[in-house]
Amino acid sequence: MAWSWSHTGEAYAFAYERLSELPTDELAVIFAEWRAAEIGGGIVDANEFSQRRYERALKFATTGPNDTMPGEWVADWIWNKAEEHCTCDNGGFNAWVCPYGCHTVPFGPDDE
Question: What is the distance between the alpha carbons of residues 30 and 91, in angstroms, rounded to a whole number?
Answer without folding.
Answer: 22
